[in-house]
Amino acid sequence: MYRVFEALDELVTIVEEARSVPMTSGCVVPRGDVLELLDDVRDAIPSELDDAQDVLDHRDELVSKAQTEADKNLTDARSEADKTASEARAEAEQLLADARERAERIVSEAQAEAEQTITNGRREYEDYVSRAQSEADRMVQAGRAAYEQSVYEGQSEQSRLVAETEVVQEAHAESKRIIDQAHSDGERLRSECDAYVDSRLADFEELLGRTLRTVGKGRQQLRSPMGAPFDYEDWQSAGNGSSGHDAAGRAAG
């Protein structure tokens, strides 16, 4: 490229210093020198200019080829995107179906366990009531027997000590005290039994309330469009509560 600029400068100098033709704007230049400089310019022009000219000559073909390649790449990209979206949609539907199936299974198990808990609670309540009634009857029977025994002993003692008024009064007082004690013990036992049964029923009521709330939350999540994951912590806390109540019941028993 330096030689090109030098040759052009020399051509300019030759033209500027050339002898003018009278009565015209032309000039006389040495043909050989000018042709030699032009040959130098032609030889010094880089080959990249020819390559650039070739590119310009074939630019329409190259642009068309590039456009075709770009369209093909775009079509392939769209096909791949559609395939990926379809696979993702299928996987999401499968995950949703699995989640709904699991939620339905958990709700079904919760309902079954709630029903079993209610049945066990009723059975245990009836057992407690029956045992309490039996114990109360036994205490009343024992009190009545003690009363009758005291009356009999009092009558015998009265007959033996009919003249001793103070002894007779003490016997009546003792028999009355024994009878009152028997009735008091029977009432106290019945009250304690009722309080224990009431506390057990309150525990069962709390457990059933938590279980029903858990079942309701699971059903509500199933009715939602994209149900949130089931809250296993509430379910586990309800199960732990059930285990705690059972342990309390065994300890009390």
Short account of what is shown:
The chain is mainly α and 253 residues long.
Question: What features would you describe in this structure?
Answer:
The protein contains six helices and two strands, in the order αββααααα. With 253 residues, it is mainly alpha-helical. Among the domains are: 1-91; 165-205. It has a two-stranded antiparallel sheet. Mean pLDDT is 77; it is low at 247-253.
Order of helices and strands: HEEHHHHH
Q: Provide the gyration radius in Å.
A: 57 Å
Strand order in the largest sheet: 1-2
Cα(first) to Cα(last) distance is 110 Å
Residues in β-strands, percent: under 5%
Uncertain runs: 247-253
Give a short account of the largest sheet.
2 strands, antiparallel
Query: Structural class from helices and strands?
Result: mainly alpha
How many distinct beta strands?
A: 2
What's the shape? rod-shaped
Organism: Halopolyspora algeriensis
Protein name: Cell division septum initiation protein DivIVA
Keywords: Cell cycle, Cell division
Region (Disordered): 66-92, 217-253
Produce the secondary structure layout:
Elements: H1 2-17, E1 19-20, E2 27-28, H2 31-44, H3 47-57, H4 59-160, H5 165-223, H6 232-252
Helix pairs in contact: 1-2, 4-5, 5-6
Which characteristics define this entry?
mainly alpha, disordered C terminus
